[in-house]
Amino acid sequence: MIKSFYILLFFAIALASPATASDFVGRASVIDADTVEVSGQRIRLHAIDAPESSQLCRTAAGKDYRCGQVAALALADFIGARNVSCEQTDTDRYQRAIAICRLGGADVNAWLVENGHALAYRQYGRDYVEHEDRARVAERGIWAGEFVPPWDWRRGVRLADARTMSTGSVQLASRSDCRIKGNISKNGRIYHVPGSRHYDRTKIDTSRGERWFCTVDEAVRAGWRAPRG
After folding, report:
1. 44 SS3 class
2. What is the per-residue pLDDT across 166-179, written as a single tens digit (0 to 9) for each?
3. For the chain, which residues score pLDDT lower than 70?
């Protein structure tokens, strides 16, 4: 009798546990570069933001191309016919699961950012900031040319618009724009702009948490300060 009670209790807890509903395993259909579908569940990848399907970016040679489409195809090729495993972290306003997806031992979200197919979505987490830094330095994917961050693109900003904007939050992003060095030393987190006293001799090691910034405002918001003296 007691044994039967514990068996029933075990199944009741298992059915009620949200953990069973937070894992999705199976073949992934790529909707776009930051959204997949697994076992009938639409999943938005956690803490990253990829170019939209119809978004245009520009190559280093000045040619426009559909970077959102390129990113989605790269993700589809990376996953192939293999199963992914996604761990849910939240649910968005469209009732999509927010998740970190893995392919074997590889973090799919991180792979997209480190290869320049998506950006770290700092508004929702800083998990992939270092991956973005490495992609920027290596000029991978969209960092090889120019692009409007996807959150600005969804607001209606286009490449031509961003070129004419000198104020506000919109930045036309490219590797060449991100030349501010975010150094970490015994004196704290200090940024160095091109032409400043210590700029040339400052080396950036992203494995230590150091990073590149595109603007002084970005560096300040991330917690870095100007050098004293």
Report:
1. strand
2. 334 445 665 555 78
3. 1-22, 162-177, 229
Task: Give residue 161's pLDDT.
Answer: 72
Q: For residue 12, what pLDDT is reported?
A: 46
As a residue count, the chain comes to 229
| Domain boundaries along the sequence of the chain | 2-142, 179-229
Beta carbons within 8 Å of 124's beta carbon, 6+ residues apart: 46, 47, 98
Contacts of 48 (CB under 8 A, 6+ apart): 34, 109, 112, 113, 118, 119, 120, 121, 128
pLDDT tens digits for 63-83?
999 999 999 999 999 999 999
- pLDDT attached to residue 60: 85
The CATH architecture one would assign to domain 2-142 is: Beta Barrel (2.40)
Measured CA to CA in angstroms, residue 227 lies from 42, 134, 201, 203, 223 at distances of 46, 24, 14, 15, 13
What CA–CA distances, in Å, run from 7 to 18, 166, 203?
Answer: 19, 66, 61
Assess contact for 79 and 32: CB atoms under 8 A. Answer: no
- The answer to whether residues 67 and 115 touch, using CB atoms and an 8 Å cutoff, is no
| Residue 159 neighbours by CB distance under 10 Å | 17
Place of tokens 């979505």: 121
Q: Is the separation of the CB atoms in 84 and 75 below 8 Å?
A: no
